[in-house]
Amino acid sequence: MEINLDKRAVRQIRLSAQESIDEGDPESLREDILEAFSEDQVEEIERHLDNGDFFEFLTDILDEWSGDDVDELLELLETQLGDIGIDLKLDGKSSAEEEEDEDEEEEEDEDEDEDEDDALDEEEEDFSDDE
Fold it and tell me: Has this prediction a pTM greater than 0.70?
């Protein structure tokens, strides 16, 4: 079984988790996570749970969460759902993944620029040797 959370839902969870970190209020976070899932998704998850209670499942996840890293919370959610046979797909990357991708793109651009500069330098050397 696969569940996709759209960008809006992921953003809602991220904002609520950050608020929870800042204010120390996991109760509203639990409710916001629950609201990020559609009724059909919640019903499907509850069918996979032994106790059939998604709210309690979220309570257990929040108890396990260190309470200071949003990405860790999302990873816990993915892992715990995976353990009950649900593959959670999150639309929109984490901020850390986006930064890594941007860094990799910048490095590739720099490498390309250096390669072009090296090629130009070699052409200039060849031209000066001809004189």
Answer: no
